[in-house]
Design brief:
The structure is a single chain. 39% of the residues are buried. 38% of the residues lie in helices and 23% in strands. The strands form 3 sheets. It has a 6-stranded mixed sheet, with helices on both faces. A 6-stranded mixed sheet has the order 6-13-12-11-14-15. A 3-stranded mixed sheet has the order 5-9-10, with no helix packed on it. α4 packs antiparallel against α8 and α5 runs parallel beside α8. β14, α10 and β15 form a beta-alpha-beta unit. The termini are close together. The protein is an alpha/beta fold.
Length: 318
């Protein structure tokens, strides 16, 4: 397998990459806003016929594959395609059952569905399902985890995947034993844009933050306080002219991230692996540092982890 196509089909975005297996180098990439939610709405509008559901989603994917092959090399017609994210969800191409915990963190026992080659693209298509506990679930993070080399040693590790819905996955002796979701990003959006606090905060422009005192203050307070009470301080900070709207924005961000990390600060986990892009790396690194966890922290780029995880899973499947 010299090449494979990596597809990360999220709720709001679609990303397709051509990967060279040797070195996992990205040779070409297409990104669009045609996420699974958009595709699902389009399919429902077309009549929502279950018999053509897979074909409907495939038709969008095949069109993007055709664009990429035309630009690169049509001999890629037999390269396999691996899909992670929401493609296996109830609004995706086909709904697959979750893999239940405990499961292997190298991705070798995840639930997969292989679709055989067709006329549009001769390579096999492999869809990765998500994973669940009794009360929580992930779709996509299980694939990134497979690319994080979590089994290099036997230590207990906590993997943190920040985002709209931040996911924490506990790994013990090579097995995922717990999943926890925090709606940190979504809650920040709701509070800063759609609540009484919206008039009290303002996002900074392109200027750099020279002093992150207010963010750190929020982190510390969030890690020790009752959130439903402490968020109201954002309002009183404005009422009493204590902070500018930009400083309040930093304070609210810190408050919510600190609350997410509240239990992490109390845990005795040997290592913490932060898996994300550069955009969230800075905030979570500073927050974990403020909570005295810097020595335990390791960073892993999310895109690199995703591609490596897909590569490992595709080798198990083919």
């Amino acid at each position: 397998m010299k090449y494979f196509f990596s597809c990360d089909w999220g709720t709001s975005a679609f990303r397709l990459r051509l990967i060279e297996s040797d070195g996992l180098k990205v040779l070409s990439e297409i990104k669009t806003n045609n996420g699974i939610a958009v595709s699902f709405d389009q399919w429902k509008t077309s009549g929502g016929d279950e018999s053509n559901r897979v074909w409907f989603y495939q038709s969008y994917l095949f069109a993007r594959l055709k664009e990429m092959k035309a630009a690169i090399d049509d001999t890629l017609h037999e390269a396999p395609v691996i899909l992670s994210g929401m493609a296996s969800s109830s609004i995706g191409m086909m709904e697959l059952p979750y893999k239940e915990i405990p499961f292997r963190c190298d991705g070798s026992d995840l639930v997969l569905q292989t679709i055989t080659a067709g006329e549009e693209h001769a390579g096999k298509m492999i869809i990765i399902s998500g994973a669940r506990s009794e009360v929580d679930a992930v779709r996509g993070e299980e694939t990134m985890l497979a690319g994080c080399d979590a089994v290099k040693d036997g230590r207990e590790k906590l993997f943190i995947f920040p985002g709209t819905h931040s996911k924490h996955m506990l790994v013990e002796k090579g097995l995922v034993t717990n999943i926890t979701t925090y709606i940190t990003g979504e809650l920040f959006d709701l509070l800063s844009n759609k609540s009484i606090l919206s008039a009290s905060v303002k996002k900074r422009g392109e200027e750099a933050v020279e002093d992150d005192h207010f963010f750190i203050e929020g982190v510390i307070k969030g890690s020790i306080s009752n959130l439903s009470n402490s968020v109201f301080q954002v309002r009183t900070n404005q009422l009493f002219n204590k902070l500018t709207p930009q400083e309040n924005y930093d304070f609210l961000s810190g408050l919510l991230i600190g609350y997410e990390l509240k239990e992490v600060a109390k845990s005795k986990t040997a290592a913490i692996v932060l898996v994300c892009g550069e955009g969230l790396k800075n905030a979570y690194t500073r927050a974990l540092g403020a909570l005295g966890l810097s020595e335990k922290l390791v960073y892993q780029n999310a895109d690199d982890a995703l591609i490596k995880g897909q590569w490992r899973i595709i080798r198990h499947a083919l």
